[in-house]
């Protein structure tokens, strides 16, 4: 029965690989040069301070953006990529000049792995890269490890940090350590001047 389903799995994997190429703006992740092409595209966009490919699907990035918010904000956005359905960070501007920031992409323990939807398509892609369509163990999705920070000169009305707001030269800073054990997605409500 398993052998009879090999062709169906292969056709499904090829369809998923084509969908992933479309999502990635034409970049073929099966191409060894693709990771560097993706990193180069990101480096051109404002806010991407560093994008280093570490191999096996792992990118080390630093993203920082400073501005005055006058509209909703969503991260990430990628030039020439299909619209991402799940954002890591969303800032919604409310009536009365308050902003709610939700960083749902940084809480894998609470909501499942944030890369799960995107990486689901990669599973099919990886099988198309295997010789003779062999089924072998897939590499694991890289673990998230880092810091999420909000620096603001606004009044912090609510947040779910462990330490609360800390003084900063620019006003106040909220900081969350994010990793595979993070339970609650970072959240803040800020009143703007």
How many β-strand stretches? 10
C-alpha-based Rg, rounded:
20 Å
What would you call the structural class?
Answer: alpha+beta
Average pLDDT level? 77
Describe this structure in words.
With 193 residues, the chain is α+β, with helices and mostly antiparallel strands. The protein has one domain. The chain is built from 4 helices and 10 strands; from the N terminus they run H-H-E-E-E-E-E-H-H-E-E-E-E-E. The chain has a 5-stranded antiparallel β-sheet, with no helix packed on it. Strands 6-9-8 form a 3-stranded antiparallel β-sheet, with no helix packed on it. Helix 1 packs across helix 4. It starts with 5 loop residues before the first helix and ends with a strand. About 15% of the residues have low confidence.
Could you write a compact summary of the structure shown?
The chain is α+β, with helices and mostly antiparallel strands and 193 residues long. It is 24% helix and 30% strand.
Detail the topology: elements first, then pairings.
Layout: H1 6-23, H2 34-44, E1 48-55, E2 58-63, E3 73-75, E4 89-94, E5 98-102, H3 108-111, H4 116-129, E6 145-152, E7 155-159, E8 166-168, E9 171-179, E10 187-191
Key structural traits:
193 residues; alpha+beta; five-stranded antiparallel β-sheet; three-stranded antiparallel β-sheet; 24% helix; 30% strand
